[in-house]
Amino acid sequence: MDYVERDLDLIPRSERRENSVLMLDILEAVPIDALGNIDNIAKAAGARWDTTRKYIELIILIQNSPKVRVFDVAGSPRTMYRRDPGGVRREL
After folding, report:
1. What mean pLDDT comes out for the span 57-84?
2. Per residue, what are the HEC states of the chain?
């Protein structure tokens, strides 16, 4: 079988604010050239303080984890996944 890695930027996004959209909104609200606190990030993302803190911590854990790669199976609707080598952290 032939496998082709999927371009995750081409996946259509839902119009409603799902968990993944909320997490991306929070990630985009984190300042690039300055430091931001949870209050400012939550306000910019239009999210609650506790939700923002939870997603920031999740983003940090994911960024420190091995990358998961997504592959489409040629000629099939199946999707396959593979994790790069490395340990998975369970806490900050």
Report:
1. 92
2. CCEEECCHHHCCCCCCCCHHHHHHHHHHHCCCCCCCCHHHHHHHHCCCHHHHHHHHHHHHHHHCCCCEEEEEECCCCCEEEEECCCCCCCCC
